[in-house]
Amino acid sequence: MLFKSQCNQYQWNINDHNGIFFFGDLNYRQTVTNQDELIEKTNILKTYSESDIKFPPTYKFKANSNSYDLSRRPSWTDRILYRAKQCYIESINYWTTSMIQFSDHRPIANLFLLRCLKPVIEHKIEQISQYVLKAFPKGESLILDGEILLIDRKTRKPLPFGTLGVHKKKEFTEANEAFFIFDCLYYNGQSLLHKTLTERREILTEHMKPIENRILLSELKTINKKSDLKHLINFTIAEGLEGLVLKNPDGIYEPNKRHWLKVKKDYLMEGTMADTADLVVLGAYYGTGKKGGLMSVFLLGCYDSKTDQWYTVAKCGSGFDDATLEKLQIELKPNMTKISKNPNQIPKWLNISRDLIPDFIVIDPKKSPVWEITVNILSFFSFD
C-alpha cells in the first residue's frame, strides 16, 4: 500500500499499468454485439480485448421476486474488457453466475491468468533472440520458461550466476550467452498450462532443434528412489551447479503455486555447505508492492585498506519477514541519508557503479552493521 505522501512522488495514469481490467454494467441488448463500437478502430477502448461470449443473454428479474421480467428483451448486462502492457493476460473462463440476492440479473465473471514480467536487459538477450527463432522453425507464437546464462564454449558448462553483467563478461573471452529452456507454456496459439510436464516436454522435444552453446533443453532425469536423488545432488554440487528443481511429471503448470522443490547446497545440513560472506550495509533501496516506501533491498560491501575506499559487493533483498523489515527501518534510519539515486550525492569514500546507486546511503560506514550473507556461489572478478 502506498500512502498519500508516497503517491505524490509519482505521476501515474491508468495507461501506465501493466494490466488493466475494465468492467461494468453496460446493459446492452442482443443486437449490440453486432454493432459494437467500444473496441473498434479509432474508438475509445480500441486497445482493449474481450473474451468470446459463449453464454446466452438473460432477462432482468422482476422486483422483489425470483421471476424474469419477460416484458423486456434479454441482454448481456455486464461486460469485462482487458488490456495487457508488458505482461501476459489469458482468459481462462468467461461465464455468467446466479446471484439473485445481490443482483437483478445474472452477472458475469472472468477468470484470468496474469503474468507481469520486467523487460530483460537488452545486452543479455541481443545474441539470443536470433537463435530462438532458428531453434523453433515452425514456431509462430510461444512462451518459454528458461534462464539465460553465460556458457563456456570449450567445456560446454554454464558459468557462475552473475557473470552476465557487461563488465564481468569481458573476463570470459571463450564464453557466450546461452538460453537453457525448462518448459513451454504456450505454442502457436495453444495454451499448454493444463498439460502435464511430461506432455509439455514432449512438445518441446518435437518442435525444438537445439543449437550448440546457444539454445539448449535443460537436462531432465527421472528419480525413482532416494539413493538416485542423493547421487544426483552430490553430482550437482561436485560440478559446481546451482542446484536441482524437483517436479512432478504428471503436474500441470500453475503460476504462483509452490508445487516444486528446489534443492541447493545452502539448503543442506542447515546451510553448512553454503558459502558465506561478512559484509557491511552501505545503502538501501525502496521496495515495491506492499514494501513500497520501505527500505527493503540493501546494498552491501566491504572496505579496502589499500585504497581507503568501500566497494559494493552485493544487493540483498530476500530472507526478511515483515517484522524484521520493520525493525530494520528503526535500527538503520539514524545512520542513513536519502539521496534518491542521485549520483552527485555519492560520498567520496564509496566506489560504486552508476547502475547500483541506491535511494539511501549510510552516513558513516564504520557505524553500520555487519551481516553474514549466505550465498550459493562466491565469484570474484577484477575490473583493472
UniProtKB/TrEMBL annotation:
Q: Name one GO cellular component term.
A: DNA ligase III-XRCC1 complex
Biological-process GO terms, alphabetical: cell division; DNA biosynthetic process; DNA recombination; double-strand break repair; lagging strand elongation; phosphatidylinositol dephosphorylation
Residue ranges occupied by any ATP-dependent DNA ligase family profile domain in the UniProt entry: 170-304
Entries under SUPFAM superfamilies matching the protein: DNA ligase/mRNA capping enzyme, catalytic domain, DNase I-like, Nucleic acid-binding proteins
Keyword Membrane attached: no
Q: Where are the transmembrane segments?
A: none
Q: Which Gene3D superfamilies does this chain map to?
A: DNA ligase/mRNA capping enzyme (3.30.470.30), Endonuclease/exonuclease/phosphatase (3.60.10.10), Nucleic acid-binding proteins (2.40.50.140)
**What UniProt keywords are attached to this protein's entry?**
ATP-binding, Cell cycle, Cell division, DNA damage, DNA recombination, DNA repair, DNA replication, Ligase, Metal-binding, Nucleotide-binding
Question: InterPro entries from the xrefs?
Answer: ATP-dep_DNA_ligase, DNA_ligase_ATP-dep, DNA_ligase_ATP-dep_C, DNA_ligase_ATP-dep_cent, DNA_ligase_ATP-dep_CS, Endo/exonu/phosph_ase_sf, IPPc, NA-bd_OB-fold
One GO MF term: ATP binding
User: What family does the database annotate?
Assistant: Belongs to the ATP-dependent DNA ligase family.
Protein name as annotated: DNA ligase 3
Q: Which organism is it from?
A: Rotaria sordida
